[in-house]
Amino acid sequence: MMNYICYDCSSRYSLESNKWKCDCGGLLNLEYEKKPVDFTKTSLSRDHSLWKYIDALPFEKEDVWQEITLGEGDTPLIKISENVFAKAEYYMPTLSFKDRGAVLLIAIAKKLGVERVIADSSGNAGTAIAAYGARAGIQCDIFVPDSTSSKKIKQIEAHGAIIHKVPGTREDTARAAIAMVENTQSFYASHIYNPIFWEGTKTYVYEVFEQMNGKMPDVFIIPVGNGTLLMGAYIAFQELMENGQIIKMPKILAVQAENCAPIVKSFTEGKYTVEPVEGSGTLAEGIAIAAPARGTEILEAIRATGGDIIGVTEKSIVLARKELALKGIYVEITSAANYAAYLQYVEKYPELNNQQVVFPLCGAGLKSN
Ligand SMILES: *Cc1c(COP(=O)(O)O)cnc(C)c1O
Ligand SMILES: [Zn+2]
Q: What is the pLDDT of residues 79-95, one digit of tens each?
């Protein structure tokens, strides 16, 4: 049994209902039977993809995912210094971590017999949906802000998706996509609203746990736009705690671009909900989300781990990108925010010098103009 459950009122909906929001307006989470991952077994697996964690994923061993996978997951952990590691998510089939969630979301759509999906994105999620949609033979309509990097738009179009460039803000793009979902009653392949996406992003943490030989790092630095990596990580922490595989949650030290930092604002003010901000424009297009739909859940997750969230400046992002490139690591501009955050967090919490820290390299350098 697997169903959506409303975060606010606990109403349940079948996956076939095609719901992306509760009738009460609440957001949906996913409920299903999962088994603990046997990491001693998966660490020896010759399956170098996230599908080696099938026991804890919402699919059967023999299932539609097999026709759709592109070998996503099992990305390298690069040693930056004695205690600091970067997880190279740009090794993914479409060059960003969004493949983790997109492959699951499209596999579910395929299983439900969906022929057309709609998604909106600042670029990378749309690219991932378009690629797996092409693989699955599902038509994709992808909405992006018209300011999106032309490299990402080309990548989306190459996969045969219909692209809709929307003038205005990222929120205007979301509104346009939702209008089409409502008008056409299509499947909304949203990395923000559909909680199946998190079941993919949670494997990021499984992999780190396995790569560190069954030990968790003390700290995960995680970028936050809509919080899809963050929420996936938090779900993984909860599962591992519930299964007795870890006894303490690692800290989430989150980061936004200072120029578009609604979660930082709420967190700092001690609030439990997130008010939209007026973004002043950031180079970090992948995290430029002024009105995150899952704000309440993101705040809850950060606090539950004893974590923190900071904003980084445009200057520090550009500098961090240069520094990483001079270490042989070329990331898209958005991804440099994570390293900028690490440098800023070490100043804020000098004890980090003696702790194990992992930050993600979310997207490939060639994605930025
Ligand atoms: C999507 C993305 C993020 C942020 O992820 P959210 O799920 O929106 O929080 C960060 N960096 C890159 C490169 C991305 O594509
Ligand atoms: Zn509800």
A: 999 999 999 999 999 99
Pairing status of strand 77-81 against strand 84-88:
antiparallel
Q: Which pTM does this prediction carry?
A: 0.97
Which ligand sits nearest to residue 287's alpha carbon? 1
User: What's the CA angle centered on 33, arms 298 and 35, to 5 degrees?
Assistant: 95
- Dig out the tokens for 188 from the structure: 């909304």
Count of residues in the chain:
369
| Residues 186-219 pLDDT 10s | 999 999 999 999 999 999 999 999 999 999 999 9
Nearest CA to ligand 1 atom 5: 225
Q: Is any ligand 1 atom within 6 A of the Cβ of residue 363?
A: yes
The candidate with the shortest Cα–Cα distance to 2, out of 28, 24, 27, is 28
Q: Is ligand 1 within 6 A of the CB of residue 332?
A: yes
